Amino acid sequence: GFGIGCADGRLLNVTFPLERTSFNNQHIYTISLSGLKGGHSGVDINKHRGNAIKLMARFLRELSKKCEFDLFSINADFAKNVIPASAEAVISCSHGDELNNLISDMSVMLKAEYPDAMPHITLTVGESEFAPMSQKSRDALLSFLTLAPCGVYDLTSFRADRVETSNNIAPIITKEHNVELTLFARSLIASRGEELADKIRLLVKAFGAELDEFYSNPPWEPNYNSQLLEDFKKLYKFELGTEPEIEVVHAGLECGIIGAKYAGMDMIAIGPTMEGVHSPDEKLHVPSIERIYRILTAYLKL
Q1: Beta strand 246-249 with 2-6: parallel, antiparallel or unpaired?
Q2: Which of 7, 151, 175, 203 is the most buried (most CB within 10 A)?
Q3: pLDDT of 49-87, one tens digit each?
Q4: Largest distance between two CA atoms of the chain
Protein backbone atom coordinates (compact mmCIF):
# COMPACT_ATOMS: atom_id res chain seq x y z
CA GLY A 1 0.00 0.00 0.00
CA PHE A 2 0.85 3.69 0.11
CA GLY A 3 1.39 6.10 3.00
CA ILE A 4 -0.17 9.52 2.62
CA GLY A 5 0.29 10.99 6.11
CA CYS A 6 2.20 10.59 9.37
CA ALA A 7 2.32 11.71 12.98
CA ASP A 8 4.59 14.36 14.41
CA GLY A 9 7.16 13.52 17.06
CA ARG A 10 8.25 15.33 20.23
CA LEU A 11 11.19 14.07 22.26
CA LEU A 12 10.95 15.18 25.87
CA ASN A 13 14.26 14.35 27.55
CA VAL A 14 13.93 14.37 31.33
CA THR A 15 16.79 14.62 33.83
CA PHE A 16 15.55 13.48 37.22
CA PRO A 17 17.77 14.58 40.14
CA LEU A 18 18.81 12.02 42.75
CA GLU A 19 20.00 12.11 46.34
CA ARG A 20 22.18 9.19 47.41
CA THR A 21 22.49 7.85 50.95
CA SER A 22 24.69 5.46 52.90
CA PHE A 23 24.60 1.72 52.23
CA ASN A 24 23.57 -0.60 55.07
CA ASN A 25 25.16 -3.75 53.61
CA GLN A 26 21.98 -5.68 52.92
CA HIS A 27 21.95 -8.22 50.10
CA ILE A 28 22.08 -6.62 46.63
CA TYR A 29 19.89 -8.09 43.92
CA THR A 30 19.31 -7.45 40.24
CA ILE A 31 15.65 -7.71 39.27
CA SER A 32 15.19 -8.40 35.54
CA LEU A 33 11.85 -8.05 33.79
CA SER A 34 11.91 -9.48 30.27
CA GLY A 35 9.96 -11.47 27.70
CA LEU A 36 7.74 -8.66 26.44
CA LYS A 37 7.27 -8.26 22.68
CA GLY A 38 8.60 -4.71 22.30
CA GLY A 39 8.13 -3.03 18.95
CA HIS A 40 7.91 0.36 17.29
CA SER A 41 6.70 3.09 19.63
CA GLY A 42 4.43 4.49 16.91
CA VAL A 43 2.84 1.79 14.77
CA ASP A 44 2.85 -0.83 17.57
CA ILE A 45 1.74 1.44 20.41
CA ASN A 46 -1.86 0.18 20.25
CA LYS A 47 -0.98 -3.53 20.24
CA HIS A 48 -0.86 -4.01 24.01
CA ARG A 49 2.84 -4.85 24.06
CA GLY A 50 3.57 -3.54 27.57
CA ASN A 51 6.34 -1.08 28.43
CA ALA A 52 9.00 -2.74 30.62
CA ILE A 53 9.95 0.56 32.29
CA LYS A 54 6.37 1.19 33.40
CA LEU A 55 6.00 -2.40 34.57
CA MET A 56 9.27 -2.30 36.52
CA ALA A 57 8.11 0.87 38.27
CA ARG A 58 4.83 -0.89 39.05
CA PHE A 59 6.69 -3.86 40.54
CA LEU A 60 8.88 -1.63 42.72
CA ARG A 61 5.89 0.40 43.88
CA GLU A 62 4.21 -2.83 44.97
CA LEU A 63 7.38 -3.92 46.75
CA SER A 64 7.49 -0.61 48.67
CA LYS A 65 4.03 -1.41 50.07
CA LYS A 66 5.24 -4.75 51.43
CA CYS A 67 8.71 -4.12 52.82
CA GLU A 68 11.63 -1.73 53.09
CA PHE A 69 14.21 -1.78 50.31
CA ASP A 70 16.89 0.44 48.81
CA LEU A 71 16.92 1.28 45.10
CA PHE A 72 20.24 1.80 43.33
CA SER A 73 19.21 2.01 39.68
CA ILE A 74 16.66 1.35 36.95
CA ASN A 75 17.93 0.83 33.42
CA ALA A 76 16.43 0.00 30.04
CA ASP A 77 18.84 1.03 27.30
CA PHE A 78 16.67 1.08 24.20
CA ALA A 79 16.36 3.50 21.29
CA LYS A 80 13.93 6.37 21.77
CA ASN A 81 11.48 4.99 19.18
CA VAL A 82 11.28 1.49 20.68
CA ILE A 83 8.80 0.03 23.17
CA PRO A 84 11.21 -1.46 25.74
CA ALA A 85 10.84 -5.24 26.05
CA SER A 86 12.99 -5.56 29.19
CA ALA A 87 14.28 -3.55 32.13
CA GLU A 88 16.55 -4.07 35.13
CA ALA A 89 16.57 -2.66 38.64
CA VAL A 90 19.25 -3.07 41.29
CA ILE A 91 17.98 -3.10 44.87
CA SER A 92 19.02 -4.17 48.36
CA CYS A 93 16.51 -5.90 50.58
CA SER A 94 16.62 -8.08 53.68
CA HIS A 95 13.04 -9.34 53.24
CA GLY A 96 13.72 -12.25 50.91
CA ASP A 97 10.38 -13.97 51.41
CA GLU A 98 8.32 -10.89 50.57
CA LEU A 99 10.52 -10.20 47.55
CA ASN A 100 10.27 -13.74 46.18
CA ASN A 101 6.52 -13.89 46.81
CA LEU A 102 5.97 -10.65 44.90
CA ILE A 103 8.11 -11.88 42.00
CA SER A 104 5.99 -15.03 41.80
CA ASP A 105 2.68 -13.14 42.05
CA MET A 106 3.66 -10.44 39.54
CA SER A 107 4.97 -12.99 37.04
CA VAL A 108 1.62 -14.79 37.07
CA MET A 109 -0.26 -11.50 36.79
CA LEU A 110 1.81 -10.22 33.87
CA LYS A 111 1.35 -13.46 31.96
CA ALA A 112 -2.41 -13.03 32.36
CA GLU A 113 -2.26 -9.37 31.29
CA TYR A 114 0.02 -10.00 28.28
CA PRO A 115 -0.95 -13.47 27.02
CA ASP A 116 0.66 -12.94 23.61
CA ALA A 117 4.10 -12.50 25.20
CA MET A 118 6.10 -14.44 27.78
CA PRO A 119 6.85 -11.86 30.49
CA HIS A 120 8.82 -13.03 33.48
CA ILE A 121 10.73 -11.56 36.41
CA THR A 122 14.01 -13.04 37.65
CA LEU A 123 16.18 -12.36 40.66
CA THR A 124 19.97 -12.69 40.67
CA VAL A 125 22.83 -11.56 42.90
CA GLY A 126 23.67 -7.99 41.92
CA GLU A 127 26.15 -5.19 42.46
CA SER A 128 26.12 -1.42 42.17
CA GLU A 129 28.73 1.20 41.47
CA PHE A 130 26.52 3.77 43.25
CA ALA A 131 25.23 4.19 46.77
CA PRO A 132 21.46 3.67 47.15
CA MET A 133 18.99 6.46 46.42
CA SER A 134 17.44 8.23 49.37
CA GLN A 135 13.91 7.09 50.10
CA LYS A 136 12.65 10.51 48.99
CA SER A 137 14.39 10.19 45.60
CA ARG A 138 13.28 6.58 45.21
CA ASP A 139 9.64 7.34 45.91
CA ALA A 140 9.66 10.45 43.71
CA LEU A 141 11.16 8.56 40.76
CA LEU A 142 8.73 5.65 41.07
CA SER A 143 5.80 8.06 41.42
CA PHE A 144 6.88 9.97 38.31
CA LEU A 145 7.20 6.77 36.27
CA THR A 146 3.80 5.60 37.53
CA LEU A 147 2.06 8.86 36.65
CA ALA A 148 3.79 9.56 33.32
CA PRO A 149 1.47 8.87 30.35
CA CYS A 150 2.47 5.87 28.27
CA GLY A 151 0.62 4.16 25.43
CA VAL A 152 -2.42 5.35 23.47
CA TYR A 153 -3.61 8.81 24.56
CA ASP A 154 -6.45 9.18 22.05
CA LEU A 155 -7.86 7.63 18.86
CA THR A 156 -8.74 9.41 15.64
CA SER A 157 -12.21 10.77 15.00
CA PHE A 158 -12.31 9.35 11.46
CA ARG A 159 -11.32 5.75 12.32
CA ALA A 160 -11.86 4.20 15.74
CA ASP A 161 -9.02 1.71 15.23
CA ARG A 162 -6.40 4.36 14.42
CA VAL A 163 -4.20 6.05 17.02
CA GLU A 164 -4.26 9.84 16.99
CA THR A 165 -1.96 10.67 19.93
CA SER A 166 0.38 8.54 22.04
CA ASN A 167 3.43 8.55 24.27
CA ASN A 168 6.25 6.07 24.93
CA ILE A 169 8.96 5.97 27.61
CA ALA A 170 12.44 4.81 26.56
CA PRO A 171 15.25 4.71 27.36
CA ILE A 172 15.92 5.12 31.08
CA ILE A 173 19.53 5.33 32.27
CA THR A 174 20.61 5.74 35.91
CA LYS A 175 23.72 7.77 36.67
CA GLU A 176 25.24 8.74 39.99
CA HIS A 177 23.45 12.05 40.45
CA ASN A 178 20.43 11.70 38.17
CA VAL A 179 18.24 9.46 36.05
CA GLU A 180 17.88 10.29 32.37
CA LEU A 181 14.78 9.19 30.48
CA THR A 182 12.93 10.13 27.31
CA LEU A 183 9.24 10.47 26.61
CA PHE A 184 8.35 10.31 22.92
CA ALA A 185 4.98 11.94 22.20
CA ARG A 186 3.37 11.54 18.77
CA SER A 187 0.20 12.90 17.21
CA LEU A 188 -1.47 13.15 13.82
CA ILE A 189 -2.79 16.55 14.95
CA ALA A 190 -0.15 19.01 16.11
CA SER A 191 -2.42 20.71 18.67
CA ARG A 192 -3.21 17.37 20.38
CA GLY A 193 0.49 16.58 20.52
CA GLU A 194 1.05 19.94 22.19
CA GLU A 195 -1.73 19.16 24.69
CA LEU A 196 -0.03 15.91 25.69
CA ALA A 197 3.42 17.53 25.80
CA ASP A 198 2.11 20.24 28.12
CA LYS A 199 0.81 17.64 30.58
CA ILE A 200 4.27 16.06 30.59
CA ARG A 201 5.87 19.47 31.16
CA LEU A 202 3.64 20.06 34.18
CA LEU A 203 4.50 16.63 35.59
CA VAL A 204 8.23 17.20 35.13
CA LYS A 205 7.99 20.60 36.83
CA ALA A 206 5.98 19.19 39.75
CA PHE A 207 8.75 16.67 40.47
CA GLY A 208 11.55 19.22 40.22
CA ALA A 209 13.15 17.59 37.18
CA GLU A 210 14.73 19.24 34.16
CA LEU A 211 13.31 19.03 30.64
CA ASP A 212 15.03 19.33 27.26
CA GLU A 213 12.45 19.26 24.49
CA PHE A 214 13.11 18.52 20.83
CA TYR A 215 10.57 18.56 18.01
CA SER A 216 11.88 15.63 15.97
CA ASN A 217 9.51 15.72 12.99
CA PRO A 218 6.37 17.60 11.93
CA PRO A 219 3.12 15.87 10.98
CA TRP A 220 2.35 15.13 7.34
CA GLU A 221 -1.28 15.90 6.67
CA PRO A 222 -2.88 13.57 4.11
CA ASN A 223 -3.95 14.87 0.71
CA TYR A 224 -6.70 12.60 -0.54
CA ASN A 225 -6.90 14.60 -3.81
CA SER A 226 -3.25 13.94 -4.71
CA GLN A 227 -2.66 13.40 -8.43
CA LEU A 228 0.46 11.38 -7.63
CA LEU A 229 -1.62 9.10 -5.42
CA GLU A 230 -4.19 8.60 -8.19
CA ASP A 231 -1.44 7.75 -10.70
CA PHE A 232 0.10 5.17 -8.37
CA LYS A 233 -3.27 3.65 -7.47
CA LYS A 234 -3.97 3.03 -11.16
CA LEU A 235 -0.50 1.55 -11.71
CA TYR A 236 -0.85 -0.67 -8.65
CA LYS A 237 -4.18 -2.03 -9.90
CA PHE A 238 -2.82 -2.54 -13.42
CA GLU A 239 0.42 -4.24 -12.35
CA LEU A 240 -0.81 -6.29 -9.37
CA GLY A 241 -4.53 -6.67 -10.03
CA THR A 242 -5.66 -5.42 -6.60
CA GLU A 243 -6.45 -2.12 -4.93
CA PRO A 244 -3.68 -0.73 -2.67
CA GLU A 245 -4.24 0.04 0.99
CA ILE A 246 -3.97 3.75 1.75
CA GLU A 247 -2.55 4.49 5.21
CA VAL A 248 -1.89 7.40 7.53
CA VAL A 249 0.80 5.98 9.82
CA HIS A 250 1.32 6.72 13.50
CA ALA A 251 5.05 7.22 13.07
CA GLY A 252 7.48 9.74 11.67
CA LEU A 253 8.24 9.70 7.94
CA GLU A 254 10.71 11.69 5.89
CA CYS A 255 7.74 13.09 3.95
CA GLY A 256 6.75 15.09 7.04
CA ILE A 257 10.14 16.79 7.14
CA ILE A 258 10.19 17.40 3.38
CA GLY A 259 6.61 18.71 3.39
CA ALA A 260 7.44 21.21 6.14
CA LYS A 261 10.19 22.69 3.96
CA TYR A 262 8.34 22.49 0.63
CA ALA A 263 4.71 23.28 1.34
CA GLY A 264 2.24 21.77 -1.10
CA MET A 265 4.63 19.20 -2.56
CA ASP A 266 2.72 16.19 -3.90
CA MET A 267 4.09 13.10 -2.13
CA ILE A 268 3.33 9.53 -1.19
CA ALA A 269 5.37 7.03 0.85
CA ILE A 270 6.02 3.67 -0.76
CA GLY A 271 8.20 0.72 0.21
CA PRO A 272 8.36 -3.03 0.90
CA THR A 273 6.26 -4.70 3.58
CA MET A 274 7.85 -4.91 7.03
CA GLU A 275 6.64 -6.40 10.29
CA GLY A 276 7.79 -6.06 13.89
CA VAL A 277 9.89 -2.98 13.17
CA HIS A 278 12.39 -2.15 15.96
CA SER A 279 11.70 -5.44 17.74
CA PRO A 280 13.54 -8.79 17.90
CA ASP A 281 10.88 -10.09 15.47
CA GLU A 282 11.60 -7.52 12.73
CA LYS A 283 10.99 -9.03 9.29
CA LEU A 284 11.10 -7.88 5.68
CA HIS A 285 8.68 -9.54 3.24
CA VAL A 286 11.10 -10.24 0.39
CA PRO A 287 8.50 -10.76 -2.39
CA SER A 288 7.16 -7.25 -1.71
CA ILE A 289 10.46 -5.77 -2.94
CA GLU A 290 9.78 -7.11 -6.44
CA ARG A 291 6.26 -5.63 -6.40
CA ILE A 292 7.56 -2.20 -5.42
CA TYR A 293 10.23 -2.43 -8.15
CA ARG A 294 7.56 -3.17 -10.76
CA ILE A 295 5.40 -0.24 -9.72
CA LEU A 296 8.27 2.27 -9.53
CA THR A 297 9.72 1.29 -12.90
CA ALA A 298 6.25 1.43 -14.46
CA TYR A 299 5.78 4.95 -13.14
CA LEU A 300 9.17 6.10 -14.45
CA LYS A 301 8.14 4.92 -17.93
CA LEU A 302 5.01 7.12 -17.99
Answers
A1: parallel
A2: 7
A3: 999 999 999 999 999 999 999 999 999 999 999 999 999
A4: 76
